[in-house]
Design goal:
The chain is α/β, with parallel strands linked by helices and about 280 residues long. It has helices spanning about 5-15, 30-45, 70-80, 90-95, 105-110, 115, 120-135, 150-160, 190-195, 195-210, 215-230, and strands spanning about 1-5, 20-25, 45-50, 85, 140-145, 165-170, 235-240, 255-265, 265-275. A 6-stranded parallel sheet has the order 1-4-3-2-5-6, with helices on both faces. Strands 7-8-9 form a 3-stranded antiparallel sheet. The protein binds pantoate (PAF). Pantoate binds near residues 24, 26 and 57. Pantoate binds near residues 26, 57, 125 and 147.
Length: about 280
């Protein structure tokens, strides 16, 4: 495995390769990320992973400075997964000048849900992912389904900007108690960690009821939010949306997804569960 820090060096190493599978990350890798690497290995002959904590996707009050940076441990994991190249640029490499060109996803998709609570978030994500795609030029890119809205934004960006990249969604990896693995779980105190699986539990409750024919969706969403609030959470949203575009109108047979975001203590957790 080779760690590469500059764009020109990476281009030199990858130039002409057609079967690259790419996993963009912000590091602090956990078992969920490891499954992304394994999926990449199935799809590409060369596996490239990027580690870059992207300032553009953090709001001014968010955790950019304290986001966990664990580069040595990350590299050990990537090495044991047989990753070929780790692209780990510093900020000067990706932003030699202040970034003033952006990929701006449609408000209908990106200004709702996460975008409502984290203004500019998907502009930051789409811009950095577009830059990384231009640098790595992968044939495949793998994204986890926990960040469901991110996945939809990237899929639409690739389709609408005619990027020749197949986006591969990868199922959420969970701890035994249901909590979706996330780098931000590291922020949880012991008490918060034992409370945290309740986000998944209430979302699963909605999903199970939908599968058994429940139609009172708004009532179930409100009950779930109320339950979490009663347990000390600050709920941003617990909502059922169309899988295809995250719109709120529920047609009779449309595939649905339960999406949730809530804060326990100072830590904001998100989760998603496709119904069915
Ligand atoms: O999902 C993430 O870790 C980030 O949003 C990504 C895709 C690496 C862009 O910074």
């Amino acid at each position: 495995m080779q760690v590469v820090e500059s764009v020109s060096a990476l281009r030199g190493l990858l130039g002409g390769q057609s079967a690259i599978a790419f996993v963009p990350t912000m590091g602090n890798l956990h078992e969920g990320h490891v499954t992304l690497m394994r999926e990449a290995r199935k799809r590409g002959r060369i596996v490239v992973v990027s580690i870059f904590v992207n300032r553009l996707q953090f709001g001014p009050q968010e955790d950019f400075d304290r986001y966990p940076r664990t580069f040595a441990a990350d590299c050990a994991k990537l090495e044991s997964e047989g990753v070929d190249y780790v692209f780990a640029p510093d900020e000067q490499v990706l932003f030699p000048h202040p970034q003033d060109f952006f990929v701006i996803p449609s408000p209908q998709l990106a200004d709702i849900l996460e975008g409502e609570f984290r203004p500019g978030y998907f502009r930051g994500v789409a811009t950095i992912v577009a830059k990384l795609f231009n640098i790595v030029q992968p044939a495949h890119a793998i994204f986890g389904m926990k960040d469901y809205q991110q996945l939809r934004v990237i899929e639409r960006m690739v389709a609408q900007l005619n990027m020749p990249i197949a986006i591969q969604p990868n199922p959420t990896v969970r701890a035994g108690d249901g909590l979706a693995l996330s780098s931000r779980n590291n922020y949880l105190s012991a008490a918060e960690r034992s409370e945290a699986p309740n986000l998944h539990r209430v979302m699963r409750g909605i999903s199970v009821r939908l599968q058994s024919g429940e139609r009172a969706i708004a009532k179930r969403e409100a009950e779930a939010a109320l339950e979490l609030t009663g347990r000390g959470w600050q709920v941003d949203y617990i909502t059922v949306r169309r899988q295809s575009d995250l719109g709120a109108q529920h047609g009779a047979r449309e595939p649905l997804v339960v999406l949730g975001a809530a804060r326990i203590g100072k830590t904001r957790l998100i989760d998603s569960l496709e119904v069915g």
